[in-house]
């Protein structure tokens, strides 16, 4: 290595330059917006409405063989039902999730140990809520 040239790596000026400016037309338009323009645009805004019970439409029991994706959806549905205070429905989902995989069905999956532990915990919480109310 030459003594005259220092090691710049990828920060060397020949390789990388810090001389740039973000060019986003939307940001420029927002900066130039007056309050009247903002209020006019605000009138056109509409809230985003999501179907918050979409996971509740998951079939129970899930058809076998179950892949990892359908198990993940069912797990989310069980958690959603618990937080919506539908403890029995959540318990049904959890019990379906905790079924062992069928060795006769090719491609049938089951939850990993960490997810099973979470579902056992959720099942215990559902039992507590159902028997205390």
What can you tell me about this protein's structure?
The protein is mainly alpha-helical and 133 residues long. The protein has a domain at 54-132. It has helices at residues 25-31, 35-44, 68-83, 87-97, 113-132. Helix 3 (68-83) runs antiparallel to helix 4 and helix 4 runs antiparallel to helix 5 (113-132). The relative contact order is 0.10. The mean pLDDT is 77.
Q: Compute the average pLDDT.
A: 77
Helix share bin = 40-55%
Number of strands: 0
Estimated structural class:
mainly alpha
Regions with little confidence, pLDDT below 50 for 5+ residues: none
- Characterize the main sheet: none
Radius of gyration over C-alpha positions, nearest whole angstrom: 27 Å
Instruction: Encode the helix/strand succession as letters.
Output: HHHHH
Taken as a percent bin, the fraction of beta residues is: under 5%
Molecular shape = elongated
**Distance from first to last alpha carbon:** 77 Å
Number of helices: 5
Short key terms for the protein model shown above:
133 residues, mainly alpha
Question: Helix and strand layout, with pairings?
Answer:
Layout: H1 25-31, H2 35-44, H3 68-83, H4 87-97, H5 113-132
Helix pairs in contact: 3-4, 4-5
Question: What would a concise description of this structure say?
Answer:
With 133 residues, the chain is an all-alpha fold. 48% of the residues lie in helices and 0% in strands. The radius of gyration is 27 Å and the shape is elongated.
